[in-house]
Amino acid sequence: MKSAMEQKMIPAREPPVNSRGVLGWMREHLFATPFQSLITLTIAYGLYLILPPFWQWAVMDATWTGENRSACNVEGACWAFVTARLDQFIYGFYPESETWRVNLFFAQLALVLGWLMIPAIPGKKLALGLGLLVLPVTSWLVLSGGFFGLPVVETHQWGGLMVTLVLALYGMLASLPIGVLLALGRRSSMPVIRTFCTAYIELWRGVPLITVLFMASVMLPLFVPEEIVFDKLVRAMIGIVMFQSAYMAEVVRGGLQAIPRGQAEACQSLGMGYWQSMLLVVLPQAVRLVIPGIVNTFIALFKDTSLVLVIGLFDLLSIVQAGLNDPEWLGSAVEGYLFAGFVFWLFCFGMSKYSQRLEKN
Amino acid sequence: MEKMVREGKDPTSPVIKLNGVNKWYGSFHVLRDINLDVVRGEKIVICGPSGSGKSTLIRCINALEEHQEGQIIVDGTELNRDLKNIEKVRREVGMVFQQFNLFPHLTVLENCTLAPVWVRKTAKKEAEKTAMEYLERVRIPDQADKFPGQLSGGQQQRVAIARSLCMNPEIMLFDEPTSALDPEMIKEVLDVMVELANEGMTMICVTHEMGFAKTVADRMIFMDQGQIVEEATPDIFFNSPESERTKEFLGQILSH
Amino acid sequence: MDNKRQPMLVRLWRDPVWRAIFFQVLLILAVVAMVGWVVNNTLSNLEQRGISTGFDFLSQSAGFGIIQTLVEYDESHSFGRTFLVGLLNTLLVSFLGVIFATVLGFLMGVARLSSNWMLSKLASVYIEIFRNIPLLLQIFFWYFAVLGILPSPRQSFSLFDAIFLNVRGISLPWPILDSGMVMVAWTLLACCVAVLVLIFFNKQHRKNTGRPVPYIKAIMVSIVVLIPMMTGFLADARLQWEIPALRGFNFSGGLVVLPELAALWFALTIYTAAFIAEVVRSGIESVNKGQKEAAAALGLKPRRVLSLVVIPQAMRVIIPPLTNQYLNLIKNSSLATAIGYPDLVSVFAGTTLNQTGQAVEVIAMTMAVYLTISLTVSVLMNLYNRWVSLVER
Question: DSSP assignment of A3-25, as one string?
Fold first, then answer.
């Protein structure tokens, strides 16, 4: 007989077979109780009913190229509508010989955004400076032309994805500084300035963007002397910036509130003035804190640019919408909307994943 | 001393002068008829129960808080509604906070050079050189490129002291500099403060570190309910205080 | 001392109080100048274009029809009436949207946190798809791509020969209420109130004695079911349904949900529900896991853990962003104008503005409506937050 002291240690064993591996996982996550099993099977059956036919329609039976709707297989998706009009969806009515300028704009944008968003690349301050100050100027010059022998392309020829990006980009860039000023104003100790900023912010946040766009499009021309004529695109931009800066202000204000008062006091005790302490110490911290919030308002803005359709501008959605009325392509609505939806989704989902990752760090 | 003589200032005249200072938060009377003269090079330790107005008092000295009645004159400049005067006083008075208030988005070195570069308009290279000297004096030159968040509380507070010193102040205010620190870190901060005191800096400290007070203070001030209750040399203050309230307070904090 | 010698203006400039006054006066002057300039330009522009000003147009006859009206309206009614019709239509679709988006959103939010992998993935795919696609596109999709390709009335899809789905909308049976039925409805309402009182009484009783009122559930069911039934029997109430029927090229009778309303309603519901689901998820996740464990350790059943501990805490986090989503939904209902649903923006800021040309008045009135709704809700929200933070203390 062994004594208790000599008893062997119990060696570690594998867990029981029903709690490990694929089976264990399925047991825990899919079939934990009869009710759970029922849910799982119902969903699986639903997916079985929907997905294979959709795949059949969207890929297997689809027609990818063609001149008009009659070239398409009746059973499948008519992606020919998209491929035939892809240039228009991207460049609008921009002259075909000049589309390289739009591509240059896309390239600039991708370059600066990539630089800013990929943490491994150094020189973020330089990238930020380029993005905020240089990019808007060069982009506008390249797109509208009129110098170095570049022919002028009027904004009514702009359209498609490019207009979506232009509106979102300029709306964002202009509303950021205005939003910061409004947020500072709303926290000001001067009652008149505080009231003014609060009223401005609450006014624009309280009304739908569509009424703001109507206002910018119908009322703005009434507000200025007759000699001044605003471009339709510029009018839409003014509306978007007024609207967006109010939302931006609230995001920045959230960041300012999170910065302890001691930071500003430390600045004061070192002899720094209001603007020095704000620009050098408080704002850099506050803005860094709310980058996810800023990205989220940008996503909202990006989706909202589609509303310019109601004042007759051709962004991505409205150019697809216009294409659907082409008698050659009648009945391609599903394909058109799926394509436009997919493009918007790709941008928005990408940005929201990026902002979620920032939030986690 | 040489600098003062050069500037033609009398080293024995008070460098800080408070005459009948009163302050209210709403209807709450936080400072009541404060009179205080501080001579150049003097070290003053203020203690008292929480809410007695001691922090408010030293925050009035660099105009972080505005007083409503009375006169505060710092190095010949009166703190009134003139912004230029306030700026001038703040440049000459350094302050160390209970919560350090380092700038978390800047490195230790950048924390130290920010104000010299933007307020004093010193060249960056020169500011960095001065900053490194002060960081050496507070014994953390090797942390210069780290961010405040990477340092211990004691190290952060020493950076805060160096940051104030970089502005080359005549006067240093300490607002409970060790209250937010773990016990083992208190000593490293107090050592730096003692050294600073020995070099002849004019200091006003709000603190409950009575050991420190006994070593460096020229004068102890006990405040309660917004008033200066007792003012004495450390010897008299700790051994034979006049006021009952002082005795009671000392009994409470020295009993452990 | 030396500041006495400074000139007066320099002294004032260095005084923070005077400096603040200066900036504020400057801002007021700038705003007044700006407004004056704008008003001046607008007046002269309007004069040049021969557009009248003022609110007289509200009493002029509108001269156009509206496809869906909740109050009596035809071409002879005034623009003021148009405004009311549009406002009611906005409120209708907002109300429908809020109710359905809340239900769908809560379901999806809870599903997202389910331990069932399939269910939680399904919910997260739903959320990620629908909140990342512009609402306007979704409205178009439902309107043009789904409802727009439905068959003509003659080839309607039908369910039990009572519900008909076609390109003109959805036709549903609608009850015709005789006097007896009206009485039944009122009795039912009264019984519901009585049950609410009973629930409250039961709660008190339970607090005082630790036991519920005996047979409380049976009592409540019989109040709600038996009493209205008896009323119906006594009053000889008969429920009749008006079934939609094909007459000529269209259905008549019953309730018709216009495709415009249906598309807008679906899109608003599905889009907003995706956001509400996220609100609900983060609200529930915000409740500390320890709370659940502590409640379970006290021996509360899972259902009670949820209803007594988790949900009350989660609701505090959920309600403010939830109201925000409701406000967004109301504002987003203005996209109606893109598919011709006659909401406020569509009939007022659209048609009325085009007919009268009085852009300033019309847009100001439209904005004022939305602003009033938003501000009212945010005032209520502030009160709620203050109440919650008081409770916390």
Answer: -GGGPPPPPP-PPPGGGSHHHHH
